[in-house]
Design goal:
about 375 residues; mainly alpha; about 70% helix; disordered N terminus
Length: about 375
């Protein structure tokens, strides 16, 4: 090209400003990228920005999609209350549309959230109702994957009701469906949930086999489920006198721990606390339990908080600090009751309820007030 040809070149055009709809999608994509990278706080900021722009242009369905993204980020930060709030907002929007598939997805997402946080019977009933509606739509649309997802979450509610055998049967079917679909991640998640319920039925061999399968999974995409399975398997090993093996197992997945994950990260450190307690290592137990508590900051997961406090109480008790231990046990008991786990609360109650009074020599047969401990 010669110099005079340059004069004929078109002048550069100014870049056009993105439309509000394009901005929403850009921020929405940033939220998903941040979430995939494990930066939940950045994901929340991106989805929140996208939602505000969507509200400004009056696009309710875009707002609903942003609410779903916010819910996912809040969920992984342990803020199930905020996740539920966003999912209810999203469902309200889709209920007002004629988009049956999107409505079913929103029903499934909220049903999932309630199934994971069913601290009252009413919440469990609502979870089953939402999951049932989503499942019905999925069946009509031949969406086998969503049907299996709904069944998996419904199994959580059934198990909480005491219908463990029914939950196990449902989860076995779910595992078969995910395997047929070739979805490795979903299969591992469902298998890990199945193992949890098998343990409740004392079927330790099969549960351990399923958990080991998940722990041995490879690839970054399985990191989340691999970590959760390792934490659960470590506790199984502790209960069967294999604490040393459990510690090696947890050390092997330490690189998978994401400190921003307010569910699997504290679960991992609680498993470490269980291992160190089994090994009678007080300081290591205390450090692991305290790390779990620190990770649970601002997370509304009372059962996790209770377990961490229990380990700290054990440390105080074995260190001769009986008063401090009783206070920690009492807090743990209250948190177990808050999470509707009466069995665990009653177990811990034995650590704080006073011994029955003993009749001293020379005491007459006059009836004395009974201590609470006599009834437990």
């Amino acid at each position: 090209m010669t110099d005079h040809d340059l004069s004929a070149a078109p002048e550069p055009t100014e870049p056009t400003e993105p439309t509000p709809e394009e901005l929403v999608r850009q921020w929405f994509d940033k939220g998903h990228q941040a979430g995939s990278a494990g930066d939940r706080n950045a994901a929340i900021e991106a989805f929140d920005t996208a939602r505000e722009i969507a509200r400004g242009i009056g696009d309710a369905t875009l707002v609903a999609r942003c609410d779903d993204g916010l819910a996912a980020a809040h969920w992984e930060l342990g803020r199930i209350d905020l996740a539920e709030e966003s999912l209810r907002s999203a469902l309200a929007v889709w209920n007002a549309t004629s988009d049956i598939a999107a409505t079913a997805w929103a029903q499934y997402r909220l049903g999932w959230c309630l199934a994971a946080d069913q601290y009252t019977e009413v919440r469990g009933e609502e979870a089953l109702d939402l999951l049932g509606k989503a499942r019905k739509t999925a069946q009509a649309n031949d969406d086998v994957r969503l049907v299996a997802n709904c069944d998996e979450k419904a199994a959580w509610v059934l198990a909480a009701r005491g219908e463990v055998d029914r939950a196990i049967a449902l989860l076995r079917t779910v595992v078969d469906v995910f395997e047929a679909l070739g979805d490795e991640y979903a299969t591992l998640v469902a298998s890990t949930n199945l193992a949890h319920h098998l343990l409740a039925r004392k079927q330790h061999a099969e549960a351990e086999f399923l958990l080991r399968q998940a722990v041995e999974a490879e690839g970054d995409h399985t990191r989340h489920v691999r970590l959760g399975a390792a934490s659960r398997l470590a506790k199984v090993l502790c209960r069967t006198g294999r604490a040393d093996e459990a510690l090696r197992l947890l050390d092997g997945v330490a690189a998978d721990v994401d400190a921003d994950d307010r569910t699997e990260a504290p679960r991992y450190h609680l498993a470490r606390a269980a291992v160190f307690q089994a090994l009678s290592t007080r300081l290591a137990t205390q450090e692991a339990a305290q790390t779990a508590l620190d990770l649970l900051d601002r997370a509304l997961l009372p059962a996790f908080h209770a377990e961490a406090l229990e380990y700290l109480a054990w440390v105080a008790k074995t260190g001769g600090q009986r008063t401090e231990a009783e206070a920690l046990y009492a807090q743990a008991m209250a948190l177990y009751l808050l999470s509707d786990d009466e069995e665990e609360a009653l177990r811990v109650a034995g650590e704080v309820v006073p011994e029955p009074p003993r009749r001293s020599a020379g005491t007459t047969g006059t009836a004395q007030p009974l201590a609470t401990g006599l009834y437990l």
